[in-house]
Structure formats: structure tokens, C-alpha cells
Specification:
Blueprint (H helix, E strand, L loop, with lengths): L2 H5 L25 H26 L9 H22 L7 H21 L2 H14 L1
The structure holds zinc ion.
Length: about 130
């Protein structure tokens, strides 16, 4: 691959960057706003991790990775972001497959459990929310 071919690939997903009408200005590094946002989040996450690592090296207990609610919030944010990325692209990047499979298993388990235990009102609300997110 030569340099010009490499420069038209998205720095996040590796997909093709659509050609621009106006050739002036800086070349686009990402194929979409979702990829740019994902790359920005990744940089922020890395910076946070570096900071966390330094803090952990100072701490007595090196196994502290953050409290459960922080970890959950991160997971939910990543799932939301990945959902938007997949919708934008129209396919699943290889780097997202592990998360998609895990989410699939989660949904399958939840759907097997939920119908018996939910009240009629809860089922209706769930159906409304599912319609909204589609
Ligand atoms: Zn991209």
C-alpha cells in the first residue's frame, strides 16, 4: 500500500473516506463523525487509563480498577457508541464483533427471562422503548 492509498482510509475503522468536493484545507482523517468521536473517546480513555495506572502504581492495592458503577457507565457508553458506529457504517467492523456477540448473548438471556417476570405495564413500556430505538 502506498502513502496516497493509506491517506484515504479512516484512521479509526479503516473504511474508505468519501472524496470531498472542496480539496482545500486539511485532509479528513475519519470517514464519519462517529469515527472521529470514537477516536476522540479512545484518546480520552487512554489518557484516563494512563492516569489510573500512575495512581495504581502509587496505591497499595494494584487491583483497584475503578468502582462497579464507573465500569458499568463505561460499558454502556461504549455499547451506545458502537451502536451508532454500526448504524453509520451499515456493517459491523471486525474490531466490534466481540462486543456485538456479547451483547447478543445478553439480549438473548434477557429475552428468555423477562417475559414471565414483567408485568403487563412493564412489557408495554419495554415494547415502546424498543420501537423508539429502532
Ligand atoms: Zn471510519
Amino acid at each position: 500500500m502506498n502513502a496516497s492509498e493509506e491517506s484515504i482510509k479512516c484512521a479509526w475503522c479503516g473504511g474508505k473516506i468519501p472524496p470531498r468536493i472542496d480539496p482545500r484545507g486539511r485532509k479528513a482523517r475519519y470517514c464519519s463523525g462517529a469515527c472521529r468521536a470514537a477516536a476522540t473517546r479512545e484518546r480520552a480513555r487512554k489518557a484516563h487509563q494512563d492516569e489510573l495506572k500512575r495512581a495504581q502504581e502509587c496505591a497499595q492495592d494494584s487491583f483497584v480498577l475503578g468502582n462497579p458503577s464507573e465500569i458499568l457507565a463505561t460499558v454502556v457508553t461504549e455499547i451506545d457508541a458502537t451502536t451508532r458506529l454500526i448504524r453509520d457504517r451499515g456493517d459491523v467492523p471486525a474490531s466490534c464483533e466481540e462486543m456485538v456477540n456479547a451483547a447478543r448473548a445478553l439480549v438473548a438471556a434477557a429475552e428468555q427471562q423477562a417475559p414471565q417476570t414483567l408485568t403487563r405495564q412493564q412489557r408495554r413500556r419495554l415494547a415502546r422503548e424498543q420501537k423508539k430505538t429502532r
